[in-house]
C-alpha cells in the first residue's frame, strides 16, 4: 500500500455517482454526509493504481504523488 499516493477528489466535478467508492476494494473511500465519496484511508491506496480515476465518469479524480 502507498504512503505517498492517494486519490484527490475535485468536488466541483464530482457528481456523487459513487463509482469510485463501489469500485475500490481497499476501502480508500467512504460516503460523506453530502452523499459524495471522500478519501478516508489514503494509506490503503495501491501505489500507481489508477482504477478509480479511469472509471470516474466526471473525471474528478487525480492523485497526490502524481508527477
UniProtKB/TrEMBL annotation:
Matches recorded under SUPFAM superfamilies: 4Fe-4S ferredoxins
Pfam (any one): Fer4_10
The UniProt record lists the keyword Iron: yes
Single GO term (MF): oxidoreductase activity
InterPro entries registered for this protein in UniProt: 4Fe4S_Fe-S-bd, 4Fe4S_Fe_S_CS, Fe-S_Ferredoxin
Keyword flag rRNA-binding: no
Record key words, sorted: 4Fe-4S, Iron, Iron-sulfur, Metal-binding
Domain 4Fe-4S ferredoxin-type as annotated: residue spans: 5-34, 36-66
Cited PANTHER family: ADENYLYLSULFATE REDUCTASE, BETA SUBUNIT, FERREDOXIN III
Protein name: Ferredoxin
Amino acid at each position: 500500500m502507498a504512503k505517498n499516493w492517494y486519490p484527490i477528489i475535485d468536488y466541483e466535478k464530482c457528481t456523487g455517482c459513487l463509482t469510485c467508492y463501489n469500485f475500490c476494494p481497499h476501502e480508500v473511500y467512504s460516503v460523506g454526509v453530502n452523499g459524495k465519496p471522500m478519501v478516508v484511508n489514503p494509506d490503503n491506496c495501491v501505489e500507481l493504481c489508477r482504477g478509480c480515476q479511469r472509471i470516474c465518469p466526471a473525471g474528478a479524480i487525480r492523485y497526490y504523488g502524481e508527477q
